[in-house]
Amino acid sequence: MIRAAIAGASGYGGAELVRWLRGHGHVELGALAAGRGAGRPVEDVFPHLSGVAEGAFAPTDWDRLGADADVVFLALPHGEALAAAVRLLAAGARVVDLGADFRLRNPAAYRRWYGAEHTATDLLTEAVCGLTEWHRDAVAGARLVANPGCYPTASSMALKPLLEHFGDRVTGAVVIDAKSGVSGAGRNPRDGYQYSELNENLKPYGAGAHRHQPEIEQELAAGGAGPRVFFSPHLAPMTRGILAACYVPMADAPSREELEAVFLDRYAGEPFVRVLTGSALPQTKATLGSNYCDLAVRVDRDRGLAVVFAAIDNLVKGAAGQAVQNMNVMLGLDETTGLLAAPVFP
Amino acid sequence: MIRAAIAGASGYGGAELVRWLRGHGHVELGALAAGRGAGRPVEDVFPHLSGVAEGAFAPTDWDRLGADADVVFLALPHGEALAAAVRLLAAGARVVDLGADFRLRNPAAYRRWYGAEHTATDLLTEAVCGLTEWHRDAVAGARLVANPGCYPTASSMALKPLLEHFGDRVTGAVVIDAKSGVSGAGRNPRDGYQYSELNENLKPYGAGAHRHQPEIEQELAAGGAGPRVFFSPHLAPMTRGILAACYVPMADAPSREELEAVFLDRYAGEPFVRVLTGSALPQTKATLGSNYCDLAVRVDRDRGLAVVFAAIDNLVKGAAGQAVQNMNVMLGLDETTGLLAAPVFP
Amino acid sequence: MIRAAIAGASGYGGAELVRWLRGHGHVELGALAAGRGAGRPVEDVFPHLSGVAEGAFAPTDWDRLGADADVVFLALPHGEALAAAVRLLAAGARVVDLGADFRLRNPAAYRRWYGAEHTATDLLTEAVCGLTEWHRDAVAGARLVANPGCYPTASSMALKPLLEHFGDRVTGAVVIDAKSGVSGAGRNPRDGYQYSELNENLKPYGAGAHRHQPEIEQELAAGGAGPRVFFSPHLAPMTRGILAACYVPMADAPSREELEAVFLDRYAGEPFVRVLTGSALPQTKATLGSNYCDLAVRVDRDRGLAVVFAAIDNLVKGAAGQAVQNMNVMLGLDETTGLLAAPVFP
Amino acid sequence: MIRAAIAGASGYGGAELVRWLRGHGHVELGALAAGRGAGRPVEDVFPHLSGVAEGAFAPTDWDRLGADADVVFLALPHGEALAAAVRLLAAGARVVDLGADFRLRNPAAYRRWYGAEHTATDLLTEAVCGLTEWHRDAVAGARLVANPGCYPTASSMALKPLLEHFGDRVTGAVVIDAKSGVSGAGRNPRDGYQYSELNENLKPYGAGAHRHQPEIEQELAAGGAGPRVFFSPHLAPMTRGILAACYVPMADAPSREELEAVFLDRYAGEPFVRVLTGSALPQTKATLGSNYCDLAVRVDRDRGLAVVFAAIDNLVKGAAGQAVQNMNVMLGLDETTGLLAAPVFP
Question: Domains in chain C, ordered, with CATH?
Answer without folding.
Answer: 2-126 (3.40.50.720), 151-313 (3.30.360.10)
